[in-house]
Amino acid sequence: MGLDVAVPAGELTGALVDFASVSGSEGPLADAVEAALVGLPGLTVDRDGDAVVARTSLGRPTRVVLAGHLDTVPIADNVPSRREGDRLYGCGTSDMKSGVAVMLHLAATVAAESLVHDLTWVFYDNEEVDASRNGLRRLAERHRDWLEGDLAVLMEPTGGEIEAGCQGTLRVIATLPGRRAHSARSWLGDNAIHRAGDLLTRLAAYQPRTVEIDGCAYREGLSAVRISGGVAGNVIPDRCEVTINFRFAPDRDVAGALAHVQEVLAGYELELTDSSGGALPGLSAPAAAAFVTATGRQPRAKYGWTDVARFAALGIPALNYGPGDPNLAHTRDEYVELPLVEEAERVLRAYLTTRS
Amino acid sequence: MGLDVAVPAGELTGALVDFASVSGSEGPLADAVEAALVGLPGLTVDRDGDAVVARTSLGRPTRVVLAGHLDTVPIADNVPSRREGDRLYGCGTSDMKSGVAVMLHLAATVAAESLVHDLTWVFYDNEEVDASRNGLRRLAERHRDWLEGDLAVLMEPTGGEIEAGCQGTLRVIATLPGRRAHSARSWLGDNAIHRAGDLLTRLAAYQPRTVEIDGCAYREGLSAVRISGGVAGNVIPDRCEVTINFRFAPDRDVAGALAHVQEVLAGYELELTDSSGGALPGLSAPAAAAFVTATGRQPRAKYGWTDVARFAALGIPALNYGPGDPNLAHTRDEYVELPLVEEAERVLRAYLTTRS
């Protein structure tokens, strides 16, 4: 099945949505994207699994990486796409086939001679599932050279805003011990669930920081996300587990963030279960500053963790910018505002072709 | 399969253990018990399901009910029974086939003319499972007249002590509400698990009463026995549930106990899920006082809930007295001390045949 990437980005978004590609089944779409890119002049096209990377080699002083994932969350009766006025409905319209459509359409329609940066187009698989399967992570491990650049723009949904850097995240499990007893003789036991009272009270009273970096305000949060304990209705429980998620500003690294949690929850046995460092906004880098100027928008902090952190880990300033609405991602009623798709195309075209 | 109820109670205990009768499969044992009782002089024998009730009708001024359940928890590689020195090992040795053996042996060997009380022997099914299946409950509903008496002795394991009355128990579920949000934007949500901090702190600080009634000290307890909450590792949870068990002294009824819990946990949404009223020790009743004298033991409070409360609900003073060890009930290594079986037989024989 072929893709006509020369059609307007809004129309192309619809074609991409209709080309279903739930995580793990991106192969046919990756084939179509690869075929479309191979047919364009002046691009070196590489492939790894279901990730496709295309690069210009114009000898420009800077290289900009534009990246987007091809996969979507499972379809929820929302394919094929459906247009109502200025809105296009369907699975992946916001997250993030509209961004992918803008990328493909620009790759096909911006003349090489007008480019002020060399470009790298990255289309990858398995962003919506477990991090171990993430296609961008795999590319960074196997083909780091394919991802080199001075700025990375990840076209995740931001509603046309620039969302810079991202928070880090870590999870710990606090295990509260106790001693079992029959609940009719509760004084013979030691209630592990009761012990959670102090821990939860500390979390409820916790005052998170708000940190401003490059004009972006990062607001932290320390939250219990799961609790479980109990043996039976007549037993004093000997164990209670609380899972706590710390979302931290990118001025802390994982080790510093963990040390902070250990300080707040001093006295509790904590086990780190997973972590991902954040990404500094990096807006002081010249290529990033020029991008901000091109959009004419005030950058803001990205709160969720996104793959921009993978670029940041490679030393590449990275930001999120895309036409989709982050609040509609993964919803049954997902849609994208077509004027925002056109705006993203216009903004990026201007940025890629205007000498700063 | 016949039962020889004339053999000593210790030996009869072994025969009863070897006659497996896990809850729900008591039929053959109930048949054997019924056959043995029908063969004895002067007893009216009634049957309902797998419960067997035998009564004397001697015109004595008082009637004593002796009751025991025929069923056991599931076998755990501990049938047939095995004797080691003074101990008899096996499923149900303590809970409560040793008590049943004492009952059957006394029924067979105490001459009617020596009895100072009329007697009712109650053998019932399904005590170790859900209360809705309990055989004594069924008898109380269908054949209340079969259970009439001035004192009930339930031969549950007490290690040869008199455990009088029993605590009541009730369970409530406290539901803590909240509002979901992505944990990267935790301030947009309302964390239901954090709200449990205050509730659990109240439970941890709670000072339970100890109430003395008829010389027995009833110590209460208010305990969280289960907690659960959480949606996903990156979501502020909108619901947390805490199950709380209140074990209360028999000077409170269920309504009073619930009102107390509502007062301690004022401000929380509580749902009563199950309750069983306690039983006053009733040791001031003449038949009970005589029993205490016969044992020569100081009565103590029963902490767990037992079927004595079913007799108490019928207005019959009731106490627990049996040769088994309550701490061994339901264990793989369950055993009974054979000297305690002989002592129980001796004590009861004296009580039943001695004019007070």
Automatic annotation (TrEMBL), chains A, B:
It catalyses: N-succinyl-(2S,6S)-2,6-diaminopimelate + H2O = (2S,6S)-2,6-diaminopimelate + succinate. GO terms for biological process: diaminopimelate biosynthetic process; L-arginine biosynthetic process; lysine biosynthetic process via diaminopimelate. Its EC number is 3.5.1.18. PANTHER family: ACETYLORNITHINE DEACETYLASE (PTHR43808), N-ACETYL-L-CITRULLINE DEACETYLASE (PTHR43808:SF31). Pathway: Amino-acid biosynthesis; L-lysine biosynthesis via DAP pathway; LL-2,6-diaminopimelate from (S)-tetrahydrodipicolinate (succinylase route): step 3/3. Residues 168-266 form the Peptidase M20 dimerisation domain. This is Succinyl-diaminopimelate desuccinylase. Keywords: Amino-acid biosynthesis, Cobalt, Diaminopimelate biosynthesis, Hydrolase, Lysine biosynthesis, Metal-binding, Zinc. NCBIfam families: dapE-gram_pos. Its cofactor is Zn(2+); Co(2+). InterPro entries: Bact_exopeptidase_dim_dom, Peptidase_M20, Peptidase_M20_dimer, Peptidase_M20A, Succinyl-DAP_deSuclase_DapE. Homodimer. It comes from Pseudofrankia inefficax (strain DSM 45817 / CECT 9037 / DDB 130130 / EuI1c). It is an enzyme of class 3 (hydrolase). One of its GO terms (molecular function) is succinyl-diaminopimelate desuccinylase activity. Pfam families: M20_dimer, Peptidase_M20.
